[in-house]
Amino acid sequence: MTYRQLEATSGRQQGSRRRSSTPFTNEDVRPLTKLPYYHAMPTHPSPASNEPRRGSLACVGLGMTLGSHLTPLARSHIQQADVVFAGLSDGVVELWLQRMHPDVRSLQPYYREGKSRMKTYREWVELMMVEVRAGNRVCGVFYGHPGIFAWSPHKVIETARAEGFQAHMEPGISAEDCLYADLGIDPGRYGCQHFEASQLLFYERRIDNAGYLVLWQVGLVGDRSLGRFSTGPKYRELLVELLSRDYPLDHEVIIYRGATLPIEKPRIRRTTLRELPHVTVTSEETVVLPPSQTLRLNLAMRERLEALDKESALA
Ligand SMILES: C[S@@+](CC[C@H](N)C(=O)[O-])C[C@H]1O[C@@H](n2cnc3c(N)ncnc32)[C@H](O)[C@@H]1O
User: Which of 256, 240, 244, 261 shows the shortest CA–CA distance to 288?
Assistant: First the structure.
């Protein structure tokens, strides 16, 4: 089915609100395989006609790559919303979203160099809640997965629920998912730790160098103001100093950027830990360190398991 045909089957008309109850016609009695995907959505109980309409909220992920990662359910939430807020990484992606809904409000202008991102994120929550409280169906659309390294979607859902509104998070394909596919990494093989890079500097954390280490937001590492768009080599030097406790300086470091447009290919750069301060790392890149240690046997646990096996064989 083409994009246009999908739009047609959604039954949505520009600027119109979906009616809460529609009389059945013969056309509605279709084989299950032909059901438009939005029928899979949970339906809200329709309010009695004199009750004010309750607002609701859905935070959905658009995935990483324009066009190919959007799930039918996420699309359905977008199309059925009264108002759509967009926290996307790319202006082109935002234009694409505008083709799906006439009222898409960008959250991007609230970012400003020097302004704390926490202030921006709180503003996003408030913008969405104002519309929910006004009785609108609100959809917050975020790139990747809306719940991965993303504060506002979790917060606005928590706030909406605390105020008695229905709120839902719809997962999306994140940078993490793309990374596993593009780098050929299976997190189940040796285990995989994920950290926001600054958190490694701000707090005492334990790194397991027998598994993969994935570092997010390395381009901003060490930014205590939360107001900078990037930090520099000196900040990455501190990160390298910390990582060198667990990894040799010639250990491989992968700098990964997944494709956001269908015409792009993933960008995969390989360097060493020593070189990390001297290469550019953008805000759209994630850093991966493969294991530097082989897995060590836990002899004590193996002995206890053996004893258990013997016990259960005797029973
Ligand atoms: C605020 S987080 C948002 C993550 C997003 N919610 C997701 O599900 O992937 C921003 C971080 O995601 C990672 N990221 C964003 N875009 C990326 C891309 N195209 N490729 C790889 N990593 C990316 C980087 O580590 C970046 O610093």
Answer: 256
Residue type (1 letter), 290: P
The pTM of this model reads 0.84
Rounded to 5 degrees, what angle do the CA atoms 232, 234, 238 make? 120
pLDDT per position as a tens digit, 69-102: 999 999 999 999 999 999 998 899 999 999 999 9
Instruction: Please give the full DSSP string across 235-250, using - where no structure is assigned.
Output: HHHHHHHHHTTTS-TT
Identify whether 143 is a catalytic site residue: yes
Half-sphere exposure of 295 (CA within 13 A, CB side): 10
Ligand 1 atom 14 nearest Cα? 284
Residue 56, amino acid: S
- Please give all residues whose beta carbon lies within 6 A of any atom in ligand 1, as ranges: 64, 89, 143-145, 148-150, 174-175, 216-217, 256-258, 260, 283-286
SS3 assignment, position 219: helix
Q: Which domains does the chain have, with CATH numbers?
A: 3-8+30-41+53-173 (3.40.1010.10), 176-289 (3.30.950.10)
- Contact indicator for 161, 153 with CB cutoff of 8 Å: no
Residue to probe by mutation, ligand 1, list 108, 120, 176, 286, most atoms within 8 Å of CB: 286
| Nearest atom (ligand 1) to Cα of 257 | 20
The per-residue pLDDT for range 220-262, each reduced to its tens digit, is 999 999 999 999 999 999 999 999 999 999 999 999 999 999 9
Q: Which atom of ligand 1 is nearest to the CA of 89?
A: 16
**Euclidean distance between CA atoms 177 and 12, whole angstroms:** 31
Separation of CA 215 and ligand 1 centre (Å): 10
Beta bridge partners of 132: none
Which string of DSSP letters, residue by residue, matches 87-143? E-S-HHHHHHHHTT-S-EEESGGG--TTS-HHHHHHHHHHHHHHHHHTT-EEEEEES
How many whole angstroms separate alpha carbon 121 and alpha carbon 214?
24
Beta bridge partners of 267: 257
